[in-house]
Amino acid sequence: MLGLRRSAATLFDHSQSLLRNLSFHGLRVQGIRVGNAEVPNHKPLNTGLQEVYGIGRRKSHQVLCGLGITNKLARDLTGKELIDLREEVGMHQHGDELRRRVGSEIQRLVEVDCYRGSRHRHGMPCRGQRTKTNARTKKGKRVAIAGKKKAPRK
């Protein structure tokens, strides 16, 4: 069993080294998959990387500068650049992992029963915004109150 694992690991290492030297210029693909999201081929890399949850303008710029990749279209990436890009994005927290972390932090606030947790539980804004006239995003659509009439104007 152990020998089979070693041979599979060496096969994986060989395939990775082959992929680093390959170029995908001849293939027509709709988009590349990075960080559980599709990066469209027709967009430049710095805007395409923003499709990944948790990567914005700043982090996409940091990733591309760290790799030394110029801002080119996603379809123009070589195999080595694609693998390096996936590894670099994998170092940052993104996607489902980030969603789980944010959800668990909100759940912790609710369980502790602090002020922010109670605001999350009731679906209200928790950063001090006014709620008498605004906060429609958190509260949802307006609901009419039965029996209440507007006062006539004089």
Automatic annotation (TrEMBL):
HAMAP family: Ribosomal_uS13
Annotated GO CC locations: mitochondrion; small ribosomal subunit
Record bears the keyword Ribonucleoprotein: yes
One of the GO BP terms on file: translation
SUPFAM superfamilies in the record: S13-like H2TH domain
Protein name: Small ribosomal subunit protein S13, mitochondrial
Leader sequence segment: none
Keyword line: Ribonucleoprotein, Ribosomal protein
GO molecular function: RNA binding; structural constituent of ribosome
Ranges for region Disordered: 120-154
InterPro entries attached to this UniProt entry: Rbsml_uS13_C, Ribosomal_uS13, Ribosomal_uS13-like_H2TH, Ribosomal_uS13_CS
UniProt record similarity statement: Belongs to the universal ribosomal protein uS13 family.
Pfam families: Ribosomal_S13
